[in-house]
Specification:
The chain has a seven-stranded mixed sheet with strand order 1-3-2-4-5-8-9, sandwiched between helices. It has a two-stranded antiparallel ribbon with strand order 6-7. The protein is of the alpha/beta class. It is globular. It has ten helices and nine strands. 38% of the residues lie in helices and 17% in strands.
Length: 252
């Protein structure tokens, strides 16, 4: 991977053709984890927008100042800007970003397709599950060791070293809102996840398959990646499957 494209928290926008995709990074991270995918899609003609979520790219304490609605509102603006440029629009979200992608898809209803990468509908980390209590005692909590198959993931991904406790509780709230909204997600969906993911539970995939209102859902299961599937050693398959899905459903 080209390190020049990574290890910084900045948002990025890549001008392309009339088909565009809004890429949403995960909780405590940054657009760096979508950079490889974004460049891959842009090289094939897509316009790519990867915003930085409020409270991210600064400090964990800063993240505690924001609510999940701030994240959603920021993305709604980014989506509207994409509409001004593109005639066919997709949304792709990683982990917590997949929750936000599902939320937008349920509310906006004007997208050509949705890609969820390791959707965080159910988390494995007990510290996140207990965030409603922890937030009253601690501002941040340590992250568990990363489980990446590709050794250079941490070298090219910008993310906080700790979980901001209040922001983690906002993530928990967002999970509940999205679960209730799944029947309203009617756009075609591509789900890509890893069976070796130790961060999110596979039960979330089952819930998405069962509750989503879409009648066009595809699933790609990886077996040699950790949680950060957009950067791990099967990243080329992730990118290629994403492009194939977009090519099937673009309307431009």
């Amino acid at each position: 991977m080209n390190g020049a494209l990574f290890k910084k928290p900045d948002p990025f926008f890549l001008e392309g053709g009339p088909t565009g995709i809004l890429l949403i990074h995960g909780f405590t991270a940054s657009p760096s984890e979508m950079s490889y995918l974004g460049n891959f899609l842009n090289e094939r003609g897509l316009t790519v927008s990867a915003p930085l979520l409020p409270g991210h790219g600064t400090t964990p304490e800063d993240a505690n100042r924001y609510r999940w609605q701030h994240w959603a509102n920021h993305l709604t603006i980014a989506f509207a800007e994409m509409q001004d440029r593109c005639s066919s629009i997709f949304i792709g979200g990683f982990s917590a970003g997949a929750l936000l992608a599902l939320y937008l898809a349920a509310r906006l209803g004007r997208i050509d397709g949705l890609i969820t990468y390791a959707p965080a509908l159910k988390a494995s980390n007990k510290k996140l599950i207990l965030a409603p209590v922890i937030k009253y005692f601690r501002r941040t909590v340590p992250k568990p060791p990363a489980h990446d198959m590709y050794p250079d993931v941490a070298e090219v991904r910008w993310a906080y070293d700790e979980y901001p406790a209040r922001a983690a509780d906002e993530l928990r709230k967002l999970q509940g809102v999205v679960k209730a909204s799944l029947p309203d997600v009617r756009a075609p969906i591509l789900i890509i996840y890893s069976t070796a993911d130790e961060t999110v539970k596979s039960e979330g995939i089952e819930l998405l398959l069962k509750k989503a209102g879409s009648n066009q859902i595809e699933v790609v299961a990886l077996h040699n990646s950790g949680h950060i599937i957009t950067l791990d050693q099967e990243r080329d398959m992730v990118a290629e499957k994403s492009y194939q899905f977009i090519s099937r459903y673009e309307t431009g």
